[in-house]
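Incident log, support desk, overnight shift.

02:14 A customer reports that sequence design results differ from what the structure should imply. Their input is reproduced verbatim below. On-call engineer (initials T.W.) acknowledged and began investigating.
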């Protein structure tokens, strides 16, 4: 084996060597027939057999048949751990001992009995269990292949999801053309409250915490609140292992060539034998990377340092449950130095040149301009089942977000932050849920929140946004009908929000000799600098509604339709920002006259589940009245800190039309083809023109070779993917500081295996993104004016699960 690797170890054939490491062990595939064992999953209350339940261990993962059973070939004797879960049941973990003969084992699952999960997942697993809201579930197996990536980066595997970037290291998810305050992120059931208004403010959440991630594409503001008009991202950690005293965990290591990234993570969880109603979990991760390299040059000061922790514990009894959760997120991120330019002449030259004048070099240090972010989240939730079978669910969460942005400043003052924000947020939710007969389910709830955001003094810079206090309350009702071939849902919600903001800034008045303000074009006047207060009180309220249905025409064909009415009040940055936004290297100006956005979205999806061909195709239309967007003003502003392009918040009526396609075709047991495509069309209806910063059309094709199992190597695979991104031609000439870049084509490969080891398994994954080191620019990257995107990146991942 080593001799073979030496022969092919030339740089351009590295992936062939990696392929051989993962695939050659599989050539020794064993044909030995082992005694069969059967595992049956049943309802603990009435012994009903449960079909389509997921049963998994370290050496298999299957779903039960119509008789609630799976059959596997025994690969060794001894003890092993099994996890089983099914819809509407508590999951269960059991240890079995296999002897040298065929054996049947039984797992009993307890019904939820109207117990509400920490998060009610309204989506479906892709090509699997469908609901009325169009959504996709990324499983733990899919997330394993993206360890070390940002949240936005790993979500790009979902059709219709892209990301808006600020350079090579800061990214936010975009769902059907919308991002930031139009996308709501729930971390373990809690709405993430940070400085999400900034396009350069990445979500303050560690994706390594997730057991699965659900992306809801519909406007589901009834269930989740005003900011869910563009979509919802649900980050779900593993469930606590009640009743399982064994210690379970996972340790993983990740390395990447581009940026010389290294990352590590670990999680531990267990129940307690003497207290079977108690369980706990600990998790932590960290990563460090230096300057990213494009195909031709380094992007200086683009490193990232990150460290995260979380802990959870809970008690679950027959009629009530209590869980607590806490997490800490910290990140320091460099901002590409080539975006901070001293004067307008140099700025024009850099935009015309399209690439940095300096080739750069690699280093891990992070200098100004940079960001430092700390985010703490604490949650307590409780559920109690009433005598009539209904359920009360209460949740309280507290979050604190600290954000510091450091600019290039003279006389060594870049050690002081130019922006220093402190956000404290509290959220409380109380809901009641009950099932009527076998088909109806009702949910009623109330919610309240309080947020305060202050600019810490001492920066020596006028804050970009004023201090503010925001509070609100809501009441909602959801009714759901479930039948054999039909699922229908309707909901209504009312929200009220209050905003009180106050700040001070310098402004200039053009006055005559008497100090009276006169028109700027009148001769004989002078500009004088004054300090003034701005902000004030604003009240917002509106109604959200949703109506959706899933029609199961046959086992192979399903159709869903979902219509939603949603809204979003303008945020403080949209109303009052005025000055340099350091992270995005731009000057932003708000408009205090902005009003609330009102959205009307209709999305329809067709699903097909065939023996070989499975696909889903969604088409949607969304009209947003008083749509708020950040428009390039085609002006530049120069100050002592440099020259920067100016952007202005504006409002118009907009329409979004689009379609997402995901399909798989299984040629054979070994080979599977996958196709993903998405397109968005967005127009300014008032001014009859295209909207700015809308994702370009994207098409992805991939083939997976499931190589086969051997005695020592399982789940061996090799993937190759082609990703084609078109040029954004739906663009208004002379409306941006640089026209959209050309389209580009990337090729990615990945391979992996799993090696059972004792009661656990070692998993190895390798991937090469941008295999041919293509030089390209992404339209949604706000630093595309000055630089290209990331070049070839080789990633290696290893984890041990036990």
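02:41 Re-run completed on a clean worker. Output:
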């Amino acid at each position: 084996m080593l001799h073979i690797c030496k022969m092919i170890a030339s740089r351009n054939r590295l992936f062939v060597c990696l392929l051989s490491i993962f695939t050659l062990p599989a050539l020794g595939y064993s044909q030995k027939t082992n005694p069969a064992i059967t595992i049956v999953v049943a309802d603990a209350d009435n012994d009903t057999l449960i079909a389509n339940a997921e049963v998994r261990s370290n050496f298999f993962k299957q779903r039960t048949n119509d008789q609630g059973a799976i059959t596997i070939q025994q690969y060794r004797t001894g003890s092993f751990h099994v996890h089983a879960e099914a819809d509407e049941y508590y999951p269960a973990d059991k240890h079995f001992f296999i002897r040298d003969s065929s054996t049947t084992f039984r797992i009993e699952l307890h019904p939820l009995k109207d117990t509400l999960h920490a998060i009610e997942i309204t989506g479906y697993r892709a090509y699997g269990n469908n609901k009325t809201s169009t959504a996709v579930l990324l499983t733990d197996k899919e997330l394993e292949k993206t360890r070390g990536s940002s949240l936005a980066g790993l979500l790009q595997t979902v059709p219709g999801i892209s990301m808006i970037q600020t350079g090579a290291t800061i990214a936010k998810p975009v769902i059907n053309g919308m991002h930031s305050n139009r996308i709501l992120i729930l971390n373990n059931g809690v709405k993430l409250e940070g400085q999400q208004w900034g396009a350069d403010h990445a979500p303050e959440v560690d994706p390594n915490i997730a057991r699965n991630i659900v992306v809801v594409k519909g406007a589901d503001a009834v269930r989740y609140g005003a900011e869910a008009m563009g979509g919802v991202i649900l980050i779900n950690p593993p469930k606590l292992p009640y009743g399982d005293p064994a210690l379970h965990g996972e340790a993983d290591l990740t390395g990447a060539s581009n940026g010389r990234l290294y990352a590590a993570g670990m999680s531990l969880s267990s129940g307690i034998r003497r207290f079977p109603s108690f369980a706990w979990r600990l998790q932590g991760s960290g990563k460090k990377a230096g300057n990213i390299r494009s195909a031709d040059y380094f992007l200086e000061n683009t490193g990232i340092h990150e460290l995260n922790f979380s802990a959870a514990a809970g008690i679950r009894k027959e009629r009530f449950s209590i869980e607590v959760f806490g997490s800490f997120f910290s990140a320091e991120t460099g901002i590409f130095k080539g975006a901070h330019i001293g004067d307008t002449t140099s700025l024009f030259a850099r935009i015309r040149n399209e690439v940095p004048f300096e080739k750069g070099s690699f280093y891990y240090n992070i200098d100004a301009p940079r960001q430092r972010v700390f985010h703490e989240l604490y949650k307590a939730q409780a559920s109690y089942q009433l005598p009539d079978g209904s359920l009360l669910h209460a949740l309280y969460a507290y979050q604190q977000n600290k954000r510091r942005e450091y600019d290039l400043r003279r006389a060594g003052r870049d050690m002081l932050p130019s922006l220093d924000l402190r956000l404290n947020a509290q959220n409380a939710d109380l809901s009641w849920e009950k099932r009527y007969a076998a088909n109806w389910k009702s949910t009623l709830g109330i919610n309240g929140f309080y947020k305060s955001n202050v600019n810490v003094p001492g920066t020596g810079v006028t804050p970009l946004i004023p201090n503010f206090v925001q509070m609100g309350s809501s009441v909602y009702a959801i009714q759901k009908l479930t039948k054999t071939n039909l699922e229908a849902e309707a909901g209504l919600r009312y929200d009220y929000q209050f905003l009180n903001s106050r700040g001070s800034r310098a402004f200039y008045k053009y006055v005559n000799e008497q100090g009276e303000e006169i028109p700027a074009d009148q001769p004989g006047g002078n500009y004088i600098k004054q300090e003034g207060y701005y902000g004030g009180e604003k009240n917002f309220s509106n109604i959200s509604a949703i109506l959706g249905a899933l029609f199961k025409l046959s086992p192979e064909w399903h159709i869903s339709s979902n219509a939603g009415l949603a809204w979003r009040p303008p945020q403080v940055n949209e109303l009052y920002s005025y000055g340099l936004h350091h992270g995005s290297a731009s000057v932003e100006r708000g408009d205090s006259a902005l009003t609330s956005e009102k959205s009307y979205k209709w999305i329809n999806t067709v699903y097909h589940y065939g023996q070989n061909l499975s696909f889903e195709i969604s088409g949607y239309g969304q009209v947003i009245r008083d749509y708020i967007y950040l428009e390039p003003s085609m002006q530049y502003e120069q100050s002592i800190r440099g020259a920067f392009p100016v952007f202005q918040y504006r409002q118009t009526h907009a329409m979004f039309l689009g379609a997402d396609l995901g399909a798989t075709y299984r040629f054979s047991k070994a080979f599977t083809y996958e196709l993903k495509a998405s397109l968005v069309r967005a127009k300014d209806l008032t001014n009859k023109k295209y909207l700015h910063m809308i994702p370009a059309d994207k098409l992805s094709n991939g083939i997976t070779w499931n190589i086969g199992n051997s005695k020592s190597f399982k789940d061996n695979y090799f993937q190759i993917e082609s990703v084609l991104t078109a040029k954004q031609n739906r663009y208004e000439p002379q409306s941006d500081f640089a026209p959209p870049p050309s389209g580009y084509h990337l090729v990615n490969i990945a391979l992996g295996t799993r090696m059972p080891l004792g009661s656990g398994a070692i998993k190895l994954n390798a991937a090469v993104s941008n295999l041919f080191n293509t030089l390209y620019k992404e339209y949604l990257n706000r630093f595309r004016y000055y630089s290209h995107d990331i070049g070839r990146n080789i990633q290696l991942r290893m984890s041990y699960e036990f």
